[in-house]
Each structure stands twice: as structure tokens, then as C-alpha cells.
Design brief:
Length: 244
């Protein structure tokens, strides 16, 4: 009996030591530097055995959402490099990772674009679809009267990128087709691209994509330095307009 108690005294501490080793706080990222993917850069990583997980960029701290130990942080890109500090804590234990979001090229001065956009829409008889002239840093949503939503990334009054989405179902309507073509044409021209060329290439690629149900993206369309990237889902497609 004494031998059994002695053995337990040796085994139990080892067991708890193993448990504490398995529950060690850990934090990692997939890369040290991230580039733009659409309007944002996606910082990916893994964290486990933490009580609190946050990230800080440009002096602002936010919580990190985690799904089965994996996380993805969306950081809107700017014309300057941005440092992102990710911090995991569990009691007195702390782990930090510092990564860089690389700078990107702006499309246009935001105020200049917004003024030209609003003037163009007034001339088209769409006074209710005006863009706000002043925007805080970040991505904001502009909902048009036709029901479409356009997303603008503005950083330091620079328009970094524009995105929108359309459902395949809506484009079966002639009215929706016309609205889509007008919206894309206006935006393209104001950014210095050839709107007709962009629409023509878009139509050609959409036709080819409909024959291949496994495609998730189209080839990048570039017109006068402006890039148009299209991602496909089962019900809709997304367009990202950038210069990077």
C-alpha cells in the first residue's frame, strides 16, 4: 500500500505537468508581411489557450474573432505601410506578433472623385445617389436607389479601392442590366479607365464563366492602370477596383 501511495505521488505531479505543457499559450501568423487582397489585406494566423486576443493598428485596438483556433484579420490598405500588433493573453502569460501590411497605390483623391461622381449623377437625373464628400478612414458602404451596395476604402482622404456585388438573378432583368452597366461605366470613366472596354471585356468573360461552373474568379481586366478583379460565388459575383 505504501508503494502504491509513493507511486501515485510521483505520477500525479507528472500528469499535471503534462497537462500544463499541452495547454501552453501560443500565437502564430502565416506570414510576416501581407499585401492587398481587394480593399483589404487579410492577416491570417492561429491562436490557442488564450483568454483574450486583440489586434492593434493605427492606434486602435479591436478583438479578434477565432474559429477553431484560426483567425483572419481584415486591415484596409493605405498608401503607407501599417504595423499590426496581435496580442494573446492568458493570466500573466502574454504572446505578441507584429506583422506588416504593405502599402498600396491610391485610385484617386477621394474628395475629387466624390465631387465628380455627384456631378455626373446629377446630370443623369440621379440626385438621391450622392456620395458623401467627407469620409473617415476605413471602408464605408454606399447604398444606391437601385438597391446595389458599393464599398469604398478611404484612407487619409485617398480613395484606395472600390468594390460592389451583383446577384446573377438580378442581371436577368433589363433594368438591372442597364443600372449595372451605367454604374460600372461611370465609375470606370471617373477613374480614368475606358468604360466601354471594361464592359466589353466583362461581358466576354462572364459569358465564358457561365460555361464553367467550377470557376471562382475571372482574369483581371486592366484599363489605363486601373484593375478590375471579379470573384464568383454560387449566387453572385464581386468586383474589386484598384490600382494595385
Amino acid at each position: 500500500m505504501k508503494k502504491l501511495k509513493y507511486a501515485l505521488l510521483l505520477v500525479i505531479p507528472l500528469f499535471f505537468l503534462m497537462l500544463s505543457g499541452c495547454s501552453k499559450l501560443s500565437l502564430s501568423t502565416t506570414k510576416k508581411e501581407y499585401s492587398a487582397d481587394g480593399l483589404v489585406a487579410i492577416v491570417k494566423g492561429r491562436a490557442n489557450n488564450y483568454k483574450k486576443l486583440t489586434y492593434t493598428v493605427n492606434g486602435k485596438t479591436k478583438k479578434v474573432a477565432v474559429d477553431e483556433e484560426h483567425f483572419a484579420i481584415s486591415v484596409p490598405v493605405a498608401t503607407n505601410d501599417q504595423n499590426v500588433k496581435i496580442k494573446a493573453t492568458n493570466g500573466k502569460n502574454t504572446e505578441t506578433k507584429l506583422v506588416k501590411v504593405k502599402k498600396a497605390k491610391a485610385l484617386e483623391d477621394y474628395l475629387t472623385f466624390a465631387q465628380s461622381y455627384n456631378y455626373t449623377l446629377l446630370s443623369l437625373g440621379q440626385p438621391n445617389d450622392q456620395l458623401k464628400l467627407i469620409s473617415n478612414d476605413g471602408v464605408f458602404t454606399h447604398k444606391k436607389n437601385d438597391g446595389t451596395e458599393w464599398y469604398y476604402n478611404v484612407q487619409g482622404n485617398k480613395l484606395m479601392g472600390i468594390a460592389t456585388k451583383f446577384s446573377y438573378k438580378s442581371l436577368k432583368s433589363k433594368t438591372d442590366q442597364k443600372n449595372f452597366a451605367t454604374n460600372l461605366m461611370v465609375t470606370s470613366k471617373l477613374l480614368g479607365a475606358d468604360g466601354k472596354q471594361v464592359l466589353k471585356e466583362f461581358g466576354k468573360q462572364t459569358k465564358n464563366a457561365s460555361k464553367n461552373s467550377t470557376k471562382t474568379s475571372m482574369s483581371q481586366i486592366t484599363s489605363k492602370g486601373v484593375n478590375f478583379n471579379i470573384n464568383l460565388t454560387t449566387k453572385e459575383f464581386y468586383i474589386y477596383i484598384t490600382k494595385y
